[in-house]
């Protein structure tokens, strides 16, 4: 039965795609949270070093995210049109692109670890520790991007079981290695970096093996790779706006002291964790909206959009309630340093209050990405960064407003994107049917 002949999408099908995606999305940030908790008990300087090094590595994560999202949308449209081999072919070429970009970024990370750490860290001790961590962690970038490409095409063909097994297995292995390497073996930050590389390399290798088993047509097709790069340029620009914001936020937080950047690291990693967990609904939207539009069913695409928007908002409200309930406990899981805990208390109301609005934004992002409406997302995300986030956090630095000012910038960023995505969703201008857009 072709996808277009299947029964109409309902809440159960959304849940069937979203729940496995939730585990996949949560696995990496859960490992990062474990890593942050393990390193946090080494002291404030190692915690700040991981904050700086992790921010640099987030550039690679950004490349992986845009690669996965772009591949999902393209593969889903072809799958919806009844052409699974063409959907898998998108994964093959995306994997070649991932390997090339991953090797390049890994080499740059190793070579530029020192200058990057110096630029972001607030003091020489933090910079030196961050550079040492980054030189090792950068070696995992090729595996990270291969895993992203694999996730992308598998989501496009609505296969969420294999990504679940691969990602969960790799990250559980690394989560077990991290405390072992850091404490009993006495490797400290080096152990943390090795555990990161292990998870990313094992995961990437397993996704590559799954692709080899799926198809014999594995040769690179430069024309298709170039087309993917061109089609992904709007995702790249959109992702650049995110990275500019978060790199600037870490740089500004670092200027407020070691305790401030340590608290910012804890809150930011929890924010990323919440974002990726809530993105499970958006992943289902990408796959189902893309498939519906590829099959020519505009009404089904609109129905999926409505359902995932409601689901994303409700899930975010539940998450926000948990954050509020755990305000006196959660920060202490990551550090016992009193100044860091004091700074975390400044961030917490912003963190909890923004989540319900962010849940709606993430869901609608998934709808528009699945529909291939990336140019609109590019423009509105850049506007949110340039008109909201960046002016506010640099004003916070100039006026010495502390972490509250930094997170006020994040609030403006979310607000601009909320207004933009809801307006687009209600207009239906994103509904364009066909195997390609």
TrEMBL record:
Keyword terms of this UniProt record: Cell membrane, Membrane, Transmembrane, Transmembrane helix, Transport
InterPro entries: DinF-like (IPR044644), MATE_fam (IPR002528), MdtK-like (IPR048279)
Transmembrane regions: 45-69, 94-113, 133-153, 165-187, 193-212, 235-258, 270-296, 308-334, 346-364, 376-397, 403-420
Keyword Transmembrane: yes
Pfam family, one: MatE
CDD domains membership: MATE_DinF_like (cd13136)
Chief place of localization: membrane
Membrane topology designation: Multi-pass membrane protein
Name listed for the protein in its UniProt record: MATE family efflux transporter
Originating species: Actinoplanes siamensis
Classification of source organism: Bacteria, Bacillati, Actinomycetota, Actinomycetes, Micromonosporales
């Amino acid at each position: 039965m072709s996808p277009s002949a299947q029964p109409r999408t309902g809440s159960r099908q959304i849940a069937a795609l979203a729940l496995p995606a939730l585990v996949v999305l949560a696995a990496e940030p859960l490992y990062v949270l474990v890593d942050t908790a393990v390193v946090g008990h080494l002291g404030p300087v190692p915690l700040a070093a991981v904050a700086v090094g992790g921010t640099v590595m987030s550039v690679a994560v950004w490349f992986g995210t845009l690669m996965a999202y772009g591949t999902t949308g393209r593969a889903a449209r072809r799958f919806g049109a009844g052409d699974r081999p063409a959907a898998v072919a998108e994964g093959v070429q995306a994997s070649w692109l991932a390997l090339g970009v991953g090797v390049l970024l890994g080499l740059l990370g190793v070579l530029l670890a020192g200058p990057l750490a110096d630029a972001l860290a607030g003091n020489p001790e933090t910079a030196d520790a961050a550079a040492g961590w980054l030189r090792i962690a950068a070696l995992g970038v090729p595996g990270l991007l291969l895993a992203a490409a694999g996730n992308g095409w598998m989501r496009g063909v609505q296969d969420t079981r294999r990504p679940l097994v691969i990602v969960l297995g790799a990250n559980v292995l690394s989560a077990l290695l991290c405390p072992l390497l850091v404490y009993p073996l006495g490797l400290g930050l080096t152990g943390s970096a090795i555990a990161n590389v292990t998870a990313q390399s094992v995961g990437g290798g397993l996704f590559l093996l799954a692709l080899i088993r799926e198809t014999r047509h594995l040769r690179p097709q430069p024309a298709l790779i170039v087309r993917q790069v061109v089609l992904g340029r709007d995702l790249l620009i959109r992702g650049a706006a995110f990275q500019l914001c978060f790199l600037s936020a870490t740089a500004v937080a670092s200027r407020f002291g070691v305790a401030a950047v340590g608290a910012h690291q804890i809150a930011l990693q929890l924010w990323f964790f919440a974002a990726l967990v809530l993105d499970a609904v958006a992943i289902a939207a990408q796959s189902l909206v893309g498939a519906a539009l590829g099959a020519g069913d505009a009404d089904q695409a609109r129905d999926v959009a409505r359902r995932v928007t409601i689901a994303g908002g409700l899930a975010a409200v539940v998450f926000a309630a948990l954050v509020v309930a755990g305000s006196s406990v959660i920060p202490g899981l990551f550090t016992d340093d009193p100044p860091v805990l004091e700074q975390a208390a400044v961030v917490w109301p912003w963190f909890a209050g923004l989540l319900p609005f962010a849940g709606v934004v993430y869901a609608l992002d998934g709808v528009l990405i699945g529909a291939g409406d990336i140019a609109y997302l590019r423009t509105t995300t850049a506007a949110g960064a340039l008109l909201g986030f960046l002016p506010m956090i640099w004003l916070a630095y100039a006026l010495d407003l502390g972490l509250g000012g930094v997170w006020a910038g994040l609030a403006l960023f979310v607000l601009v994107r909320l207004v933009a995505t809801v307006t687009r969703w209600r207009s239906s201008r994103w509904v364009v049917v066909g195997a390609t857009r």
